[in-house]
């Protein structure tokens, strides 16, 4: 770093907030960069960072314990608050033998579901007293923000005990009508599946599992949902039908019939979402919402999951759900996104093209 230019992560973070960036990247061989409206932008008024600069910048926000974990494992996740700026989820990793980091911006303020653009059926899911609700999508699709909004709604309106299991803790939930226990993997518990097992002894009404990564965690989440708790979780799947298949296929083949039956009873909803560039700047939430009715539950039990999509299209008056293509079409018709961007994320592009042609 040149003698003339002195920078800190605080100054970069302030600029990220001012430019409404979602992410900050600190990596040797390039200036600091931001992701704004889905695109990487170099902050060229800063110098190209040398390896010693990236280590100095990143280590400045790490605790001694986090440094030890990074030096032992070459990566570490944590969240950090910067006074007067905001909170960030941080992943520190090694690349070409140097320290690098990606910081995801976490606004202090939790937005209500309507402001995020979620349809009313999502709010209705928060009124369920038990079962499994899944929010899915690729990395950076806004799953954490959607879950935070749903948990905040429950926290505001119900007298519950809410337990969150996160890696790391991202949004901070103040106690409102509910009491909220937030447990961080690595600090407060050794793993998602262990925390889920013991959560059942902690008098919960609602349990949030930050990520359902493996068979043990998925099994524990199903058990919690089956025993009278409302369980929220995330998966990296692109559609509701993919999500159902992913859960079932995690289990050995001889257990899959039993899991289909169990899932058909406990599943309350799947929200699959993407963030798409908005015309004129910003991003638009596109989301598919599956809410199982009796017919869909029967199809899950009978291993006819490929037929669920047809019932999602037909059962909307009853449940208020929508397909991904319907969400895309609405955003195109409202002039929020381009047809080209809609086509890129559509799980059924031929169907979307037919819908677009019908609307011309």
Which helices and strands appear, and what pairs or packs with what?
Elements: H1 9-18, E1 23-26, E2 33-36, E3 39-42, H2 51-59, H3 64-73, E4 75-82, E5 86-95, E6 98-106, H4 113-116, H5 120-125, E7 131-136, H6 143-157, E8 161-166, E9 179-184, H7 192-199, E10 206-209, H8 215-226, E11 230-235, H9 240-250, H10 256-266, E12 267-277, E13 283-290, H11 294-301, H12 308-314, H13 316-319, H14 324-333, H15 339-345, H16 349-359
Parallel strand pairs: 7-11, 7-12, 8-9, 8-10, 10-11
Antiparallel strand pairs: 1-2, 1-6, 2-3, 4-5, 5-6, 12-13
Helix pairs in contact: 7-8, 9-10, 10-11, 14-16
Written account of the structure:
The chain is of the alpha/beta class. It is 40% helix and 24% strand. Strands 9-8-10-11-7-12-13 form a seven-stranded mixed β-sheet, sandwiched between helices. A hairpin with a 5-residue loop joins strand 12 and strand 13. Helix 9 crosses helix 10, helix 10 (256-266) runs antiparallel to helix 11 and helix 14 (324-333) packs parallel to helix 16 (349-359). The model is unreliable at 1-5 (pLDDT under 50).
């Amino acid at each position: 770093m040149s003698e003339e230019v002195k920078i800190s992560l605080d100054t970069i973070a302030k600029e990220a907030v001012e430019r409404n960036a979602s992410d900050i990247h600190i990596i040797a061989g390039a200036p600091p960069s931001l992701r704004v409206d889905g695109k990487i932008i170099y902050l060229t008024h800063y110098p190209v960072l040398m390896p010693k600069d990236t280590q100095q910048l990143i280590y400045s926000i790490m605790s001694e314990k986090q440094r030890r974990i990074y030096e032992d494992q070459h990566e570490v996740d944590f969240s950090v608050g910067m006074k007067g700026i905001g909170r960030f989820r941080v992943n520190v990793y090694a690349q070409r033998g140097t320290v690098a980091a990606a910081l995801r911006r976490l606004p202090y303020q939790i937005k209500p579901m309507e402001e995020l653009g979620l349809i009313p059926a999502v709010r209705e899911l928060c009124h369920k007293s038990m079962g499994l609700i899944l929010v899915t999508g690729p990395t950076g699709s806004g799953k954490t923000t959607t879950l935070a909004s749903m948990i905040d709604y429950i926290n505001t309106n119900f007298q519950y005990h809410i337990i969150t299991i996160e890696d790391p803790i991202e949004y901070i939930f103040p106690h409102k009508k509910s009491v909220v226990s937030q447990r961080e993997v690595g600090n407060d518990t050794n793993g998602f599946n262990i925390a889920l097992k013991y959560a059942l002894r902690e008098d919960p009404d609602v349990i949030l599992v930050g990520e359902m990564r493996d068979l043990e965690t998925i099994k524990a989440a199903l058990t919690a949902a089956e025993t009278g708790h409302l369980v929220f979780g995330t998966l990296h799947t692109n559609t509701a039908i993919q999500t159902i298949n992913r859960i079932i296929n995690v289990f050995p083949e001889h257990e899959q019939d039993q899991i289909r039956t169990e899932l058909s009873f406990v599943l309350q909803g799947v929200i699959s979402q993407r963030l798409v560039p908005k015309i004129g700047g910003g991003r638009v939430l596109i989301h598919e919402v599956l809410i199982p009715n009796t017919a869909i539950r029967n199809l899950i039990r009978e291993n006819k999951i490929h037929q669920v999509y047809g019932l999602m299209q037909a059962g909307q008056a009853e449940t208020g759900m929508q397909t991904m293509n319907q969400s895309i079409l609405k955003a195109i018709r409202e002039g929020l996104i381009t047809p080209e961007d809609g086509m890129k994320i559509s799980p059924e592009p031929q169907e979307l093209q037919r819908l677009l042609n019908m609307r011309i």
